[in-house]
Amino acid sequence: MNELARQGRSQTIAISISIILISMFVIAFYHIPQDSINPKKFFQQIVRFVLTLALLYFLFQGKNWARITLLVLFLLAILSGLILLFIPFPVAGKIPILVMIIIYGLGAYNLYFSKSFKAYFTYLNSKNR
After folding, report:
1. What are the tens digits of pLDDT across the range 49-96?
2. Residue 76 sits in which domain range?
3. What is the pTM (predicted TM-score) of this model?
4. Residues 16 and 31 sit within 8 Å (Cβ to Cβ)
5. Contact between 73 and 51 (Cβ < 8 Å)
């Protein structure tokens, strides 16, 4: 693995950890303010979290379909976050949304434009052949 691919791996790991932390934050803060946990909603959140982990796993296996799926989901998350910014609620509530937009934006950039990620992805695909 060359230096560019190592850098791509490091960036991808950092973004993946950030995505996992955002997912955990959403699960926790969706259920904390409520008096009781809605089992159906909690199950949906857990399934979403597991699917996120699965997509990240396949991304690290060099699967192009996982890269494209994550890119589309990141772009949808960015769009959703931008829409949420225009809903009137306290500024403190908008800070997590801004963080989400930034992290998903970095993830989308990494998956589509980053030369280091492309080098890492090429390395993964050559290793898997």
Report:
1. 999 999 999 999 999 999 999 999 999 999 999 999 888 888 877 888
2. 3-127
3. 0.86
4. no
5. no
**Token pair in block for residue 92:** 């403190």
Work out how many domains the chain is built from and give that number.
1
What would the two tokens of residue 20 be?
């996992």
Give the helix/strand (H/E) hosting 82.
helix 64-85
Helices 3-31 and 91-112, packing angle to 10 deg: 150
d(CA 94, CA 81): 9
Which of 97 and 34 is assigned the larger pLDDT?
A: 97
The dihedral region occupied by 26, where left means phi > 0, alpha psi between -120 and 50, and beta the remainder, is: alpha
CB 111 within 8 A of CB 11: no
pLDDT per residue as tens digits for the range 109-120: 999 999 999 999
DSSP symbol at 33: T
Phi then psi for residue 15, to 5 deg, are: -70, -40
* d(C-alpha 53, C-alpha 26), whole Å: 15
